[in-house]
Design a protein that fits this description.
The complex is a heterodimer.
Chain A (H helix, E strand, L loop, with lengths): L2 E5 L2 E5 L4 E8 L3 E9 L6 E6 L5 E4 L2 E5 L3 E6 L8 E9 L5 E3 L3 E6 L1
Parallel strand pairs in A: 2-11
Antiparallel strand pairs in A: 1-3, 3-8, 4-5, 4-9, 6-7, 7-8, 9-10, 9-11
Chain B lengths: L3 E4 L2 E4 L5 E7 L5 E8 L3 E10 L2 E4 L7 E2 L9 E3 L8 E8 L8 E3 L3 E5 L1
Parallel strand pairs in B: 2-11
Antiparallel strand pairs in B: 1-3, 3-8, 4-5, 4-9, 5-6, 7-8, 9-10, 9-11
Classes of the chains: A mainly beta, B mainly beta.
Amino acid sequence: EDQVTQSPEALRLQEGESSSLNCSYTVSGLRGLFWYRQDPGKGPEFLFTLYSAGEEKEKERLKATLTKKESFLHITAPKPEDSATYLCAVQATDDYKLSFGAGTTVTVRA
Amino acid sequence: EAQVTQNPRYLITVTGKKLTVTCSQNMNHEYMSWYRQDPGLGLRQIYYSMNVEVTDKGDVPEGYKVSRKEKRNFPLILESPSPNQTSLYFCATISSMGEVNEQFFGPGTRLTVL
């Protein structure tokens, strides 16, 4: 069974204080690893898809990286508007089902 | 504008009263899915559909039904709702099964079963 574990559960940052979120996964064969941002009461918003180890993608202050066992979401010089819950999900090659982690809630203080 | 719409957005009902939550997309996506989100448990997949008339169970299908008669619609049916189905529900689509790209989630339906 596919498993996705995110850490930490919560992260409190000062504005400008860079940090990283971790997503560890176990999957029979990886079709794709996804990162989402979710604001309270809203649907997840797609950020990135990573397909193979060594791949990196960037969007504004966010950078996602992938190894064979984990992915990191790096937040560089965060601003208060980066406060949200960040979700990680994997999809296996033999199954189109998405398995999500529980998320990391990031709070950025001005 | 690319959209996934869900209705209703909020629903309070009683145990045993059948209900349907609709999901519609305007992007001609083949893959559609339903999730429930509960505190501490994250998003769990209920059912998914890879195309018209093709559906399959996710992680938590018990107590739910789905149908996919048209590409754009994927309703979630609770034949006899129970209080443990109180949750926040999301419908989602994926553009392609060949290479998975951007995915779209609906705004959510908050269901309370008394």
